[in-house]
C-alpha cells in the first residue's frame, strides 16, 4: 500500500533536492573555470624548425645533429624551455612558415631587414662565419672583385640573402643561376656547368669534402662576399621579446665556456675563425 506524504514534507524535500543540485552545479562550474586557468599558466612547447644545412644541421644515425642543433638544444635546456622535436623543411618553406606564424623559431638564419619585419633576432648569433666564392684553383688566382664574374656562371640558392651589392651585380649582368641547395650548386660546379658558387664556409667545406673535391675547388678567402652571423630567429607573432633576450644572454654565457669551443672544433674543424 503506497503512502502519500503531507504537502509540507513534499515541498521541503523538493527544496532540499533543488539546493543540493544547485550546489553541485556551482562546484562543477568552478572546476570548469579553474581548469582553463591552470592550462593557461602552463608554458607550451616551442615549435622549432630548420632545414638541412651541414655541418650546422644534419641527420646522423637517424637523428638531427649539427653545430647549430647542439647549441640551440643546450641553450633551451639551460633555460628550462620545452621544445618539440625539431622538424626539417626546405629553407624557403621554413622561412614562409615562420613569417605566417606556423612555427615559433627557425635556425640557422642570417640577418635581413625583410626578415626582421616578422622575426625577432637575439643579440647573439649562434656563430659568425664568412661567405665566399668557391671555384677552381685556376679561376681563384685571377679573381680580384665582382667585375671578374662577368662572362661567368655563378651558382646561388633560392631564398638566401647574400648581400644587396652582390645581388645587384649578378642580376644586372645576368651571371647567376639559382638552385634549391648548395649541394646542387657544387655538383654543377663539379660538372663544369658553373664557374663559381657562393656559399658559407663551413657548409661549403663539408660538401666538397664529402664529394672529394678538396684538391680541386677552393674558397677565395682574400675577397669574402660577407662575414655574417648565423642566428636562431623567433616569430614576433608567437614568442615574447623576453624569451629572446633570455636566450641571447644565456648564449653569450655559453660562448665563454669550453663546451662551446669543443662544439666549434667538433663540427667546424680546427683552424676555423668564428
Describe the protein:
The chain has 274 residues and is of the alpha/beta class. The chain has ten helices and twelve strands. Strands 1, 4, 5, 6, 7, 8, 9, 10, 11 and 12 form a ten-stranded mixed beta sheet that branches. The longest helix is centred in the N-terminal third of the chain and has 35 residues, at 7-41. The chain starts with 6 loop residues before the first helix and ends in a 6-residue tail after the last helix. The relative contact order is 0.16. Mean pLDDT is 87; it is low at 1-16 and 21-41.
* Low-confidence segments: 1-16, 21-41
Distance between the termini: 97 Å
Beta-strand portion reads 15-25%
Report the mean per-residue pLDDT as an integer: 87
| Largest beta-sheet characterization | 10 strands, mixed
Outline? globular
Structural class: alpha/beta
Strand/helix succession: HEEEHEHEHEEHEHEHEHEEHH
Radius of gyration: 29 Å
Helix content: 40-55%
Can you count the helices?
A: 10
**Count of DSSP E strands?**
12
